[in-house]
Amino acid sequence: MNHYCNVCSLSFETDIKLANHKYDAHIDLVKASFGDETVLVSRVDGKFTCPKCSNRLISPTTLNRHLSKMHDGHCSTVSKRRKRPYSEEPIILTSVNGKSYHFLTSLENMQDILVDQPAGQWTLPIKTETATRECTNTNSNHLFQYFASTSPFCKHISSHKYIELSKSVTESVNKDWTLFPQFRYAVFQLFAGAILIEQSSAILINCVEPYGRLKSTDAHYERRLATTMNLSSYPKKECKYDWITVVQTQEDNAMKLKIGTTTCNLLVTSSLRLDKNSSISHIIEIGPNRSHFIPTDNTSIY
Questions:
Q1: Where are the beta strands (DSSP E) in 219-283?
Q2: Which of 126, 174, 232, 300 lies at a C-alpha separation of 20 to 30 Å from 211?
Protein backbone atom coordinates (compact mmCIF):
# COMPACT_ATOMS: atom_id res chain seq x y z
CA MET A 1 0.00 0.00 0.00
CA ASN A 2 1.46 3.34 -1.06
CA HIS A 3 1.38 6.46 1.07
CA TYR A 4 1.16 9.77 -0.78
CA CYS A 5 2.48 13.18 0.16
CA ASN A 6 -0.37 15.69 -0.10
CA VAL A 7 2.11 18.48 -0.97
CA CYS A 8 4.18 17.06 -3.81
CA SER A 9 2.18 13.88 -4.63
CA LEU A 10 5.18 11.54 -4.24
CA SER A 11 4.44 8.02 -3.00
CA PHE A 12 6.22 6.06 -0.25
CA GLU A 13 6.09 2.47 0.94
CA THR A 14 5.57 3.18 4.65
CA ASP A 15 4.23 5.87 6.97
CA ILE A 16 7.71 6.35 8.46
CA LYS A 17 9.26 7.08 5.07
CA LEU A 18 6.44 9.53 4.31
CA ALA A 19 6.93 11.29 7.66
CA ASN A 20 10.70 11.56 7.07
CA HIS A 21 10.05 13.00 3.62
CA LYS A 22 7.65 15.65 4.96
CA TYR A 23 10.15 16.57 7.68
CA ASP A 24 13.10 17.00 5.31
CA ALA A 25 11.29 18.41 2.26
CA HIS A 26 8.47 20.54 3.62
CA ILE A 27 9.65 21.94 6.97
CA ASP A 28 10.83 25.51 6.31
CA LEU A 29 11.52 26.71 9.85
CA VAL A 30 13.47 24.92 12.60
CA LYS A 31 14.81 25.80 16.01
CA ALA A 32 18.59 25.42 16.55
CA SER A 33 19.64 25.03 20.19
CA PHE A 34 23.08 25.39 21.76
CA GLY A 35 22.75 24.96 25.51
CA ASP A 36 20.61 27.87 26.71
CA GLU A 37 20.84 29.64 23.34
CA THR A 38 18.07 29.14 20.77
CA VAL A 39 18.07 30.45 17.20
CA LEU A 40 15.35 30.18 14.56
CA VAL A 41 16.67 29.04 11.19
CA SER A 42 14.64 29.40 7.98
CA ARG A 43 15.05 27.55 4.69
CA VAL A 44 16.38 30.02 2.12
CA ASP A 45 16.80 28.99 -1.52
CA GLY A 46 16.15 25.39 -0.48
CA LYS A 47 18.82 25.24 2.25
CA PHE A 48 19.34 25.98 5.96
CA THR A 49 22.32 28.08 7.05
CA CYS A 50 24.14 27.03 10.21
CA PRO A 51 24.04 29.99 12.64
CA LYS A 52 27.54 29.14 13.92
CA CYS A 53 29.67 28.51 10.84
CA SER A 54 27.45 29.56 7.91
CA ASN A 55 27.52 26.10 6.32
CA ARG A 56 24.45 25.48 4.17
CA LEU A 57 22.55 22.22 4.75
CA ILE A 58 19.86 20.78 2.51
CA SER A 59 17.43 19.45 5.13
CA PRO A 60 16.59 19.60 8.85
CA THR A 61 18.08 16.10 9.26
CA THR A 62 21.47 17.09 7.82
CA LEU A 63 21.39 20.35 9.79
CA ASN A 64 20.73 18.45 13.02
CA ARG A 65 23.57 16.02 12.23
CA HIS A 66 25.91 18.95 11.53
CA LEU A 67 24.97 20.83 14.71
CA SER A 68 25.40 17.70 16.83
CA LYS A 69 28.81 16.84 15.38
CA MET A 70 30.36 20.30 15.01
CA HIS A 71 28.73 22.56 17.62
CA ASP A 72 27.31 20.27 20.35
CA GLY A 73 23.80 21.38 19.49
CA HIS A 74 20.64 20.12 17.86
CA CYS A 75 17.63 21.34 15.91
CA SER A 76 13.91 20.70 16.30
CA THR A 77 10.68 21.75 14.64
CA VAL A 78 8.83 24.85 15.74
CA SER A 79 5.44 23.99 17.22
CA LYS A 80 2.53 25.88 15.70
CA ARG A 81 0.37 25.14 18.71
CA ARG A 82 -0.19 28.26 20.79
CA LYS A 83 0.60 27.88 24.46
CA ARG A 84 -2.12 28.95 26.82
CA PRO A 85 -1.53 30.31 30.30
CA TYR A 86 -2.43 27.95 33.13
CA SER A 87 -5.42 29.72 34.62
CA GLU A 88 -7.73 26.86 35.57
CA GLU A 89 -9.64 27.31 38.80
CA PRO A 90 -12.14 25.02 40.53
CA ILE A 91 -15.88 25.65 40.64
CA ILE A 92 -16.66 25.93 44.35
CA LEU A 93 -19.83 26.45 46.34
CA THR A 94 -19.27 27.82 49.82
CA SER A 95 -22.41 27.28 51.87
CA VAL A 96 -23.67 29.61 54.57
CA ASN A 97 -22.27 27.29 57.26
CA GLY A 98 -18.79 27.42 55.73
CA LYS A 99 -18.72 24.00 54.05
CA SER A 100 -17.20 23.97 50.56
CA TYR A 101 -18.41 21.82 47.67
CA HIS A 102 -16.18 21.28 44.65
CA PHE A 103 -18.05 20.78 41.39
CA LEU A 104 -15.07 19.15 39.64
CA THR A 105 -15.09 16.13 41.90
CA SER A 106 -16.00 12.47 42.20
CA LEU A 107 -19.54 11.16 41.81
CA GLU A 108 -19.70 10.39 45.54
CA ASN A 109 -18.93 14.00 46.50
CA MET A 110 -21.34 15.26 43.86
CA GLN A 111 -24.07 13.29 45.61
CA ASP A 112 -23.43 15.42 48.74
CA ILE A 113 -24.47 18.52 46.79
CA LEU A 114 -27.68 16.86 45.60
CA VAL A 115 -28.58 15.58 49.07
CA ASP A 116 -27.57 18.64 51.13
CA GLN A 117 -28.98 21.18 48.63
CA PRO A 118 -26.70 23.84 50.15
CA ALA A 119 -27.39 27.57 49.95
CA GLY A 120 -24.42 29.82 49.47
CA GLN A 121 -22.16 31.59 47.00
CA TRP A 122 -20.83 29.92 43.87
CA THR A 123 -17.26 30.78 42.89
CA LEU A 124 -16.82 30.29 39.14
CA PRO A 125 -13.57 30.46 37.12
CA ILE A 126 -13.00 33.78 35.39
CA LYS A 127 -13.76 33.55 31.67
CA THR A 128 -10.81 34.23 29.38
CA GLU A 129 -11.08 35.56 25.86
CA THR A 130 -9.56 32.37 24.45
CA ALA A 131 -11.88 30.08 26.39
CA THR A 132 -14.95 32.13 25.51
CA ARG A 133 -14.07 32.19 21.82
CA GLU A 134 -12.80 28.64 21.24
CA CYS A 135 -14.34 26.32 23.83
CA THR A 136 -17.42 24.27 23.04
CA ASN A 137 -20.58 25.36 24.83
CA THR A 138 -22.16 22.76 27.11
CA ASN A 139 -25.60 22.44 28.60
CA SER A 140 -26.06 25.15 31.22
CA ASN A 141 -27.83 22.75 33.57
CA HIS A 142 -25.08 20.70 35.22
CA LEU A 143 -27.65 18.51 36.94
CA PHE A 144 -28.86 17.29 33.56
CA GLN A 145 -25.30 16.35 32.59
CA TYR A 146 -24.85 14.58 35.92
CA PHE A 147 -27.98 12.47 35.57
CA ALA A 148 -27.26 11.77 31.90
CA SER A 149 -23.79 10.40 32.71
CA THR A 150 -24.58 8.44 35.89
CA SER A 151 -27.98 6.88 35.21
CA PRO A 152 -28.38 3.21 34.22
CA PHE A 153 -29.68 4.49 30.86
CA CYS A 154 -26.72 6.77 30.05
CA LYS A 155 -26.11 5.06 26.67
CA HIS A 156 -29.70 5.68 25.61
CA ILE A 157 -29.61 9.32 26.74
CA SER A 158 -26.25 10.01 25.10
CA SER A 159 -27.61 8.76 21.77
CA HIS A 160 -30.30 11.48 21.78
CA LYS A 161 -30.09 15.25 21.78
CA TYR A 162 -32.01 16.96 24.58
CA ILE A 163 -32.84 20.65 24.85
CA GLU A 164 -34.67 22.43 27.62
CA LEU A 165 -38.31 23.30 27.03
CA SER A 166 -38.72 26.86 25.75
CA LYS A 167 -41.55 29.37 25.97
CA SER A 168 -42.04 29.28 22.21
CA VAL A 169 -42.68 25.52 22.33
CA THR A 170 -45.07 25.96 25.26
CA GLU A 171 -46.96 28.60 23.29
CA SER A 172 -47.53 26.05 20.52
CA VAL A 173 -48.53 23.36 23.03
CA ASN A 174 -51.21 25.67 24.44
CA LYS A 175 -52.99 26.14 21.10
CA ASP A 176 -56.71 25.37 21.07
CA TRP A 177 -57.47 21.77 20.10
CA THR A 178 -60.74 22.91 18.55
CA LEU A 179 -58.84 24.99 16.00
CA PHE A 180 -55.75 22.78 15.85
CA PRO A 181 -56.89 19.16 16.44
CA GLN A 182 -53.53 17.82 15.21
CA PHE A 183 -51.87 19.11 18.39
CA ARG A 184 -53.47 16.25 20.34
CA TYR A 185 -50.92 13.96 18.65
CA ALA A 186 -48.08 16.48 18.51
CA VAL A 187 -48.17 17.04 22.29
CA PHE A 188 -48.02 13.30 22.92
CA GLN A 189 -44.94 12.94 20.72
CA LEU A 190 -43.27 15.95 22.31
CA PHE A 191 -43.39 14.73 25.91
CA ALA A 192 -42.96 10.98 25.35
CA GLY A 193 -39.23 10.60 26.01
CA ALA A 194 -38.90 13.86 27.97
CA ILE A 195 -36.74 14.08 31.10
CA LEU A 196 -37.99 15.76 34.29
CA ILE A 197 -35.49 16.93 36.94
CA GLU A 198 -36.34 18.05 40.46
CA GLN A 199 -33.32 18.54 42.74
CA SER A 200 -31.81 15.08 43.34
CA SER A 201 -34.56 13.19 41.46
CA ALA A 202 -34.98 12.66 37.74
CA ILE A 203 -37.20 10.54 35.53
CA LEU A 204 -37.42 9.76 31.83
CA ILE A 205 -41.01 9.65 30.60
CA ASN A 206 -41.80 6.59 28.50
CA CYS A 207 -45.45 7.21 27.79
CA VAL A 208 -48.11 9.85 28.42
CA GLU A 209 -51.85 9.96 27.84
CA PRO A 210 -53.17 13.34 26.59
CA TYR A 211 -56.57 14.62 27.74
CA GLY A 212 -58.26 17.79 26.50
CA ARG A 213 -59.51 20.46 28.89
CA LEU A 214 -62.97 20.78 27.36
CA LYS A 215 -65.80 18.27 27.14
CA SER A 216 -66.20 19.20 23.49
CA THR A 217 -62.66 18.05 22.68
CA ASP A 218 -62.30 15.07 25.05
CA ALA A 219 -64.95 12.97 26.79
CA HIS A 220 -62.38 12.11 29.46
CA TYR A 221 -61.49 15.71 30.27
CA GLU A 222 -60.26 16.48 33.79
CA ARG A 223 -63.12 17.29 36.17
CA ARG A 224 -62.50 20.27 38.39
CA LEU A 225 -64.76 19.54 41.35
CA ALA A 226 -64.95 21.76 44.40
CA THR A 227 -63.32 19.10 46.57
CA THR A 228 -60.36 18.67 44.24
CA MET A 229 -59.70 22.20 43.01
CA ASN A 230 -56.25 22.17 44.60
CA LEU A 231 -55.41 18.95 42.71
CA SER A 232 -56.10 20.37 39.26
CA SER A 233 -53.31 20.19 36.70
CA TYR A 234 -54.39 23.51 35.22
CA PRO A 235 -51.49 26.05 35.46
CA LYS A 236 -52.26 28.55 38.21
CA LYS A 237 -49.48 30.96 37.25
CA GLU A 238 -46.88 31.56 34.59
CA CYS A 239 -43.65 29.65 35.26
CA LYS A 240 -40.21 29.74 33.62
CA TYR A 241 -41.63 27.80 30.66
CA ASP A 242 -44.74 29.98 30.36
CA TRP A 243 -48.20 28.48 31.06
CA ILE A 244 -47.31 24.88 31.87
CA THR A 245 -46.94 22.98 35.13
CA VAL A 246 -45.91 19.58 36.49
CA VAL A 247 -48.05 18.40 39.42
CA GLN A 248 -48.69 15.34 41.54
CA THR A 249 -52.35 14.58 42.22
CA GLN A 250 -54.06 11.96 44.35
CA GLU A 251 -56.80 10.18 42.45
CA ASP A 252 -58.27 6.67 42.70
CA ASN A 253 -56.02 5.87 45.67
CA ALA A 254 -52.89 6.58 43.63
CA MET A 255 -50.40 9.44 43.32
CA LYS A 256 -50.46 10.49 39.67
CA LEU A 257 -47.95 12.68 37.85
CA LYS A 258 -49.36 15.12 35.30
CA ILE A 259 -48.03 17.77 32.96
CA GLY A 260 -50.67 20.45 32.65
CA THR A 261 -51.18 23.13 30.00
CA THR A 262 -54.09 25.49 29.38
CA THR A 263 -55.54 23.20 26.69
CA CYS A 264 -54.73 19.71 27.98
CA ASN A 265 -53.15 17.59 30.67
CA LEU A 266 -50.76 14.70 30.12
CA LEU A 267 -50.93 11.73 32.49
CA VAL A 268 -47.57 9.95 32.87
CA THR A 269 -48.27 6.22 32.58
CA SER A 270 -44.74 4.84 32.26
CA SER A 271 -41.36 6.20 33.34
CA LEU A 272 -37.75 5.30 34.18
CA ARG A 273 -35.85 6.60 37.19
CA LEU A 274 -32.51 8.25 36.37
CA ASP A 275 -31.26 9.29 39.82
CA LYS A 276 -28.71 7.35 41.85
CA ASN A 277 -31.33 5.66 44.03
CA SER A 278 -32.88 4.10 40.95
CA SER A 279 -30.44 1.20 41.25
CA ILE A 280 -32.09 0.23 44.52
CA SER A 281 -35.78 -0.07 43.69
CA HIS A 282 -38.58 0.93 41.31
CA ILE A 283 -36.23 1.75 38.45
CA ILE A 284 -39.06 1.16 35.95
CA GLU A 285 -42.61 2.21 36.79
CA ILE A 286 -45.57 1.16 34.68
CA GLY A 287 -49.00 2.56 35.41
CA PRO A 288 -50.15 5.97 36.65
CA ASN A 289 -48.76 5.71 40.21
CA ARG A 290 -45.70 7.99 40.73
CA SER A 291 -44.94 8.28 44.43
CA HIS A 292 -41.17 8.90 44.39
CA PHE A 293 -41.04 11.97 42.10
CA ILE A 294 -42.46 15.11 43.72
CA PRO A 295 -42.48 18.08 41.32
CA THR A 296 -42.38 21.78 42.20
CA ASP A 297 -42.61 25.05 40.30
CA ASN A 298 -38.86 24.72 39.62
CA THR A 299 -39.02 21.30 37.95
CA SER A 300 -36.93 21.30 34.76
CA ILE A 301 -38.20 19.73 31.53
CA TYR A 302 -35.95 18.48 28.71
A1: 244-251, 254-261, 264-273
A2: 300
Q: How does pLDDT run across 31-79, given as a tens digit for each residue?
A: 988 888 888 888 888 899 998 898 999 999 999 999 999 989 998 888 6
Report pTM: 0.52
CA dihedral 169, 170, 175, 180 (to 10 degrees): 40
Please tell me the distance from the alpha carbon of residue 24 to that of residue 62, in angstroms, as a whole number: 9
Q: What tens digit of pLDDT does each residue of 115-150 get?
A: 777 776 656 555 555 555 545 444 446 778 888 887
Exposure letters 186-213 (e unless 16+ CB within 10 A, then b): ebeebbeebbbbbebbbbbbbebebbbb
SS3 state of residue 264 = strand
Average pLDDT of every residue of the chain: 80
CB 58 within 8 A of CB 46: yes
Beta strand 244-251 pairing with 201-212: unpaired
Question: Following CA atoms 174, 298, 136, 146 in sequence, which dihedral angle do they give, to the nearest 10 degrees?
Answer: -120
Residue 60 · residue 48 · CB < 8 Å: yes
Tens of pLDDT, residue by residue over 91-105, are 777 777 778 777 676
Please report, for residues 90, 126, 229, 301, the alpha-carbon distance to residue 138 in angstroms, rounded to integers and kept in the order given.
17, 17, 41, 17
Tally the C-alpha atoms within 13 A of residue 162's C-alpha that lie toward its C-beta.
24
**Is residue 224 pLDDT above 70, yes or no?**
no
Query: Going by C-beta distance under 8 Å and a sequence separation of 6 or more, which residues neighbour residue 264?
Result: 177, 184, 187, 210, 211, 212, 213, 218
